[in-house]
Amino acid sequence: MRVQQPRIQPTGVIIKSDAEIDVMRQAGRVVAKTIDSVLAAVRPGTTTKELDDIAYGTITGEGATPSFLGYRGFPASICTSLNEEVVHGIPGPRVLQEGDILSIDCGAIVEGLHGDSAVTVAVGQASEEAITVAEAAEGSLYASIEKCVAGNRMGDVSAAAQAYAEAKGYSVVREYVGHGIGRDLHEEPSVPNFGEPGKGLLLRKGLVLAIEPMVNVGGWKTRLLPDNWTVVTEDGALSAHYEHTIAILEDGPEILTARRDKDHSIGKG
């Protein structure tokens, strides 16, 4: 498909054409299928490397390319973050245990354009605390998506995530945020999960965002492990992560990474 050159706002934000968004729908479908394939294999005794192998096979089997593999040196096709790990966990020999919560982050490239999504899932029977923090992260995501309307401000999106999580008694991570997405995995603008309504960038048709609240049981501060990738909560409390790629259209937001099979997620996924 021939895709026209992107239009760039003075802020550096790239507005996508209808043709580009259509390709990103294809990338989103690959991501959604991959997440469903990975979730179907989540059970006690499975290793995170086995999940990564499934993801790689699904993405490449669809004729797409993993967004994460090799990105700034990242060694895998998905991120697998367990319990107190917030984001960017590296798949490997770690074995999933009964009661873990696992955040899976996945990206795929189709015709040079990315899709990006994340979900948090219970391994076997998780604690009530684990389930409720994951539900809060998911609720924060959908509260933000509702604000992705042309004419709103970025602060409306950010404040919605913060308000939802804090109303449930949890905190939102401030050191890592969502982002614009398109020909690069991470583009302008940044999409914080905290902020003030009515402030920030004016949202307009054609803006595509990866919205991804990270919600903690304890405080919002994080630290980086020695592998220089895995981010954990500073206080060791549980964390959950949800993400969708969203296109702002004339009639409202469209979730480009929507999944058909949500049975494996803690919430509605």
Task: Give your account of this protein's structure.
This protein has 269 residues and is of the alpha+beta class. The chain has one domain: Creatinase/methionine aminopeptidase superfamily (Creatine Amidinohydrolase), CATH 3.90.230.10. Helix content is 26%, strand content 26%. The chain has four helices and 17 strands. It has helices at 18-39, 48-61, 128-146, 154-167; strands at residues 7-8, 14-15, 65-66, 78-82, 85-87, 101-110, 113-122, 171-172, 178-180, 187-191, 208-211, 214-216, 222-224, 231-233, 239-241, 244-249, 252-255. Helix 1 runs antiparallel to helix 2 (48-61) and helix 3 (128-146) runs antiparallel to helix 4.
Condensed summary:
By secondary structure, the chain is α+β, with helices and mostly antiparallel strands.
Q: Which structural class do you get from the secondary structure elements?
A: alpha+beta
State the order of secondary-structure elements, H for helix, E for strand.
Answer: EEHHEEEEEHHEEEEEEEEEE
CATH topology: Creatine Amidinohydrolase
CATH homologous superfamily placement = Creatinase/methionine aminopeptidase superfamily
Described by strand count, sense and barrel closure, the largest sheet is:
5 strands, antiparallel
What is the spatial order of strands in the main beta sheet? Answer: 10-9-11-16-17
Oligomer: single chain
Helix content: 25-40%
Topology overview:
Elements (H helix, E strand, L loop, with lengths): L6 E2 L5 E2 L2 H22 L8 H14 L3 E2 L11 E5 L2 E3 L13 E10 L2 E10 L5 H19 L7 H14 L3 E2 L5 E3 L6 E5 L16 E4 L2 E3 L5 E3 L6 E3 L5 E3 L2 E6 L2 E4 L14
Antiparallel strand pairs: 1-2, 3-6, 4-6, 5-14, 6-7, 8-12, 9-10, 9-11, 11-16, 12-15, 13-14, 16-17
Helix pairs in contact: 1-2, 3-4
